[in-house]
Amino acid sequence: MVYKNKCISCGTCIDICPVNAISWDEDGKAKIDTNKCIKCHSCEGMCPVGAIEIKD
Question: Which CATH number does 1-56 carry?
Fold first, then answer.
């Protein structure tokens, strides 16, 4: 889950995702394709503002 109010559109999560499950939404914020996400938590750990929470 991406907290849109926290996302600063830095792109760190997009760059770090090993399966390309993250892209930009129509508002320029990160969005996660839950069908592609492997729940590795890489994006969650790298987000500088804590805008991502992966629920297992």
Answer: 3.30.70.20
